[in-house]
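Lecture notes, continued. The same structure-token format from the folding unit now serves as the input rather than the output. Read the line below as a description of shape only.
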């Protein structure tokens, strides 16, 4: 009997201790919400504090700041050990500014994994070296009212903006001041009205994903593993900008990039700029679209680095690249490159992609570069535009262009002169395409070409083909 009493007594003490610890954690949650979310001078009201399975919850949290703004949270849930929670989840977030009936910001759910504290301090995420492990938000809505609209208007140099932006979901992983493991957006839509100009637009974005973005603390040295955008559109009353897909992998030296399904209403977009700036844009519209005002485009490029065999003493690698750019109704450009290359002694490809100066110091050992242009009316329309602006005939405009190409011969060299003459021939309608092949000398220092391209071009061997 005595043993049973002692057993139940010990159990009661354990339950009392657990209950006491839970109550202490709930009291700490209230204190932390007041200290970190409310701060000095703000008043906070909590509907109730409850303990659930392995979690602590504050319901119906309302914080009124000294400026009159109101932050409300339906449920603030801390999961796991209070001192070191596994995650925090905020449901039903809204921020309403003083003087407005509707919230300027609402979030259906916010989940922060491994937050480091039950109520993290904002300063923690701003500190150097801090990392957001995993953050996800859903059902986000921004209303362009109050201070948010004022800040955006200032960024866009506008006097008055209004509108709404909605995002189905946003994910962020391994984010710091220098790198981001993942940024993912889905289901973006919005309406934007600029009352000063009278311009209204509707925005839509199917999804966007950026993976392994590095070098944010080193401007000009950013690199990423993959980024992709799908289903972008920006439309007004009589104009639109559309992009089906765009992607990039790697960097500008080794990787892939491209876009498809790009469409622009150039003719109507011109009417959105101030009248004093329209003349040059209208000339560009006539050259690119023939006056139709509609331009469609697509393009892509891919570069690969092939390491030399480990048993090869020369340490020469191979860099290949190919791609194209197509402007429907204007012209198309294709290019390819295949060059043996070696980086400065001791430099690796990874180091070179992070430090462009190492690529620029590379040595090329021959190889070829080919560029092919196919005209769909752009160059002849340039002749028409020059003639109209100078009040001369198209034949005279073409003769002037040919004469200028010849006059620049002594300065640019015979190879560049042939290139310019070939372009004038297309302008005159004598040909529709020009292919240029450039054979590189062995060896050839890339940085010498960058510093003095005109002098270095004399060492290149050009072949031209007009069709």
């Amino acid at each position: 009997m005595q043993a049973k009493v002692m057993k139940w007594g010990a159990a009661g003490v354990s339950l009392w201790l657990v209950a006491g610890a839970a109550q202490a954690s709930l009291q700490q949650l209230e204190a932390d919400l007041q200290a970190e979310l409310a701060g000095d001078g703000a008043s906070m009201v909590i509907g109730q504090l409850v303990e659930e399975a392995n979690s602590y919850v504050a319901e119906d949290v309302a914080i009124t700041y000294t400026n009159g703004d109101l932050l409300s949270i339906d449920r603030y849930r801390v999961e796991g050990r209070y001192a070191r929670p596994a995650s925090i989840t905020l449901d039903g977030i809204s921020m309403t500014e003083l003087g407005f009936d509707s919230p300027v910001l609402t979030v259906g759910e916010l989940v922060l994994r491994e937050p480091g504290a039950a109520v993290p301090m904002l300063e923690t995420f701003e500190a150097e070296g801090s990392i957001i492990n995993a953050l996800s938000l859903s059902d986000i809505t921004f209303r362009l009212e109050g201070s948010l609209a004022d800040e955006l208007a200032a960024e866009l140099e506008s006097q008055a903006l209004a509108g709404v932006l909605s995002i189905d979901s946003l994910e962020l992983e391994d984010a710091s001041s220098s790198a981001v493991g993942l940024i993912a957006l889905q289901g973006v839509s919005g309406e934007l009205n600029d009352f000063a100009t009278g311009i209204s637009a509707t925005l839509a974005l199917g999804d966007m994903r950026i993976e392994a973005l590095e070098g944010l603390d080193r401007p000009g040295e950013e690199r990423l593993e993959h980024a992709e955008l799908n289903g972008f559109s920006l439309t007004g009353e009589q104009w639109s900008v559309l992009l089906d897909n765009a992607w990039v992998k790697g960097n500008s030296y080794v990787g892939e990039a491209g876009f498809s399904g790009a469409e622009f209403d150039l003719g109507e977009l011109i009417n959105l700029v101030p009248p004093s700036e329209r003349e040059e844009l209208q000339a560009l519209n006539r050259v690119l679209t023939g006056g139709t005002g509609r331009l469609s485009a697509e393009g892509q490029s891919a570069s690969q680095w092939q390491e030399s065999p480990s048993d090869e003493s020369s340490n020469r690698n191979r860099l290949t690249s190919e791609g194209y750019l197509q402007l429907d109704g204007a012209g198309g450009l294709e290019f390819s490159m295949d060059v043996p290359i070696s980086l400065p002694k001791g430099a690796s490809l990874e180091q070179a992609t992070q430090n462009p100066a190492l690529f620029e110091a590379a040595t090329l050992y021959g190889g070829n570069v080919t560029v092919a242009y196919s005209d769909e009316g752009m160059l002849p329309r340039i002749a028409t535009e020059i003639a109209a602006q100078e009040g001369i005939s198209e034949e005279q405009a073409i003769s002037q262009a040919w004469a200028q190409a010849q006059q620049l011969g002594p300065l640019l060299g015979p190879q560049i002169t042939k290139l310019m003459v070939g372009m004038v021939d297309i302008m005159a309608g004598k040909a529709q395409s020009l292919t240029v092949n450039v054979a590189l000398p062995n060896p050839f220092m890339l940085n010498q070409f960058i510093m003095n391209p005109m002098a270095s071009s004399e060492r290149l061997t050009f072949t031209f083909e007009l069709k």
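Point for the exam: The two ends are 108 Å apart (CA to CA).
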